[in-house]
Hints:
Elements: H1 10-23, H2 26-36, H3 60-70, H4 77-89, H5 97-114, H6 121-141, H7 144-154, H8 159-172, H9 180-185, H10 188-200, H11 214-227, E1 238-248, E2 255-264, E3 274-282, H12 307-323
Antiparallel strand pairs: 1-2, 2-3
Helix pairs in contact: 1-2, 2-3, 3-4, 4-6, 5-6, 5-7, 6-8, 7-8, 8-10, 10-11
Amino acid sequence: LAAAYPALLEVARAWALRVLAQAATEESLIALADLLEHRDTLPEAWWPILGPLEYTSREADRLIRALGDAIAAEPFRRNAALTLIGYGKRGLLWSHADRLTDIVLPHARVALSDLGSDLDASLLEDARRRLGMWSDLLASLATDDAREFLTAVAKNPDPALAVWGVIGLERAGADMPDGVVATTAAFPAARVPLIAAYSELHGVDAIPAEHRTQTAIAEGALALWLQDPNHLGAPPEAIEHVHTQEIQLPNDGGPGDVFVFRFRPEGAPDGTWLVGIAGPYARAQQPTVSDYGYTYSVFCAEDECDIDEHINRIAHTVNAAVAGAPGR
C-alpha cells in the first residue's frame, strides 16, 4: 500500500490510509505515519478515515506528531484534528501539548474571526463547526494559551459561539467565568450540545434546572435543527411549547413523548407562527438529549391544521425521507 499510494486516485488514497489504520500493526502504523508526513498527497474526505486509531495506542507519539503537521494540509485538516481529539480523550497529547497549541490556535482564531464576518448561513455554520472542533482539541491540550482562548470564547456575547468555550473549559477542567453556563443554557440552540457535553463529563448540576427539563431540551433540539443552513439558517426569533403528545416508541412500543412547538423565524411579522416537533423521547430515559430522529418541521403555519395533523405531516415527511435514503 505504501509503495502504491502516490499513484492512487484520491478516494483510493483515503481507503489506503484507512486500511493501514485498521490493521493497527506496528509496521502498518509506521507506514501510516510516513504517509501522513507527505502533506501534498493527503486526500480530502468528510468521513473519519482514521477512525480505527481510536482503539489503539500503538505508535501514538509518532502518529500524533505527523497528524499535527498534517493540519497544515487543508483537505485533510478536519480528519487530522478529529483524530487528535480522539487521542486527547485518552490523555495521550500531554507531551505534545505546547507544540499542538501553537499549530491549532491560529486556525481557531480564524474560525472565530470568520464568525464575526458577514457570511451566508452555510459559511457561518461551517465556521461554527470549525470553532467547536478546534475548541475541543484545545480543551484536550489544556495549556495556558489554550485556556485563555477558551475563556475568551466562553465570554463571547453570542451564546451560539460561547457554548464552545464553555464546553472546552469544562473539558479542560479550567476555571469557568461567572454566569456563562446559565447564559449559554438559556439560549435554546446552544442547550443540547451543552447538556450532552456536561452529561458526558461531570454531570449537569451546574446547568440551571429550568434549562434541563425534557421540554427545555426538546425546545433546544428544534432550535438547533432550525439553525442549520439547510433549514432556517438561524435560530428562531421566538419559540414556544404548545403540546406534548404521548406515543408508542417505534422499537419496543414503550411510552415516549413528542414535543410540539410554534416558532417565529427571524424577521417574520408578529403573529407569524410555524410549527415543528422534537423527539420522540423515551419516557423511561427522560430527561435525555437522545431522540428517535423526528425533530423536524415542514414549516406549516400554526393555524393551517390541528396538532395531530401537524405531527402526522412531519412524521410522514421524515418517514418518506428515510425510505428514500441510500441503502434503504
